[in-house]
Amino acid sequence: MDCVIIGGGASGIACAVRIKQNMPESSVTVLEHLESPCKKLFATGNGRCNITNTGADGYEITKGFFESIGLVLRESNEGRVYPYSNQAATVVNILLAACEKYGVKIVTSCNAYKVEKIGGQFNTFTDKGIFTSDTLVLAAGGKAQKSLGSDGSGYALSQMLGHSVTELSPALVQLTCSSKNCRALKGVRTKCGVSIEINGEIAESSFGELLFTDYGISGIVTMDLSHNVNDERLASGMDRCVAVIDFVPAMSEAELKKHIDVFGSLEGILPAKLCSILERQANGEAERIAKYVKSWRLIVTGTKGYSFAQITAGGVDCGELGHSNESKITDGLYIVGELCDKQFRCGGFNLNYAFSSGIRAADDITKKA
Q: How far apart are CA 41 and CA 46, in angstroms?
């Protein structure tokens, strides 16, 4: 059985190794358009590589796979799982060592520009020749962080084989806002509730750390909600987006007003710089300050774009894929990882999907071989 995998990132390399573990006699070739594979993995988890999360679907699959190639894991806060070394380089080294051990062929600096299926076999056209295979895995990633390998080329390849691609936008990304108050609050962090309002309706809400910046807002809660914001729709005027912030979810407006009446301010609860801005906006009126604290509105003008995004929202329609990411349209085709319209919040969930989808695909490929 011959398998070609387009993309040498998390999902592609995991898929390749698992196929060879299951079927040592198979031929597996990974085509990677950068000069070396797994470049994006080095940057994940602030260089620590948040591999998975104990609460993620497919956690046991990912955990078992890494244990099978000798990587020891450790659990951190909120179920986040990292390599024991706390270094992304360890993950990359272990994966590439497994490729060498099991005989995975990796062709680097290789750009795939066309795929087709003729007579039961796939032809992958690249600037290094044509690669023919019984099975094809598209693991080319999304559009986030092009410099690390995700240039969006996989979407066109998917469409060549009959698949549709949903609307794309940056996700797990910072948001830009028009308010000058964000710049005034630059560097201020606070744990709060945030809702994204699109055209007057709440699209999604979450709780977590918010960070004010000179361009708008960042922090985990912002990143988790950012997939709701679409730059093209905002630019065209189709959407109007507002971030609605509840700085103190644990207290009601009445309780906040009472605190101000007794103590003169909210500096015992919120950062002083934030209190100062809220007080100025409310002209020092306790009732209005309390109202702003519970529902402070910032007009969102867009995201920081794909260069800053961790992942891409949207992708190949998952309704066209089976449980093991096999195509329902083209036999022998599998589409895995970020290329799929499957996004999750921060905390190792997205990287877990990349690994587990690649592993599931590999198991299905070898089962059917």
A: 10
**Rounded Cα–Cα distance for residues 195 and 187 (Å):** 21
Please state, in angstroms and rounded to a whole number, the distance separating the CA atoms of residues 349 and 10. 13
First to last CA, the chain: 7
pTM to 2 decimal places: 0.93
The per-residue pLDDT for range 44-74, each reduced to its tens digit, is: 877 899 999 999 999 999 999 999 999 999 9
C-beta neighbour count of 60 within 10 angstroms = 12
- Tokens 């594979």 sit at which residue? 37
Do the Cβ atoms of 7 and 15 come closer than 8 Å? no
Pairing state of beta strands 112-118 and 52-53?
A: unpaired
| Sign (positive or negative) of CA dihedral 56, 62, 64, 69 | negative
Q: In angstroms, what is the C-alpha Rg of the chain? A: 23
Tokens representing 211 are 């960070």
* Tokens standing for residue 224: 């988790």
List residues bridging with 334 in a β-sheet.
Answer: 137, 326
Please say whether the beta carbons of 29 and 105 come within 8 A: yes
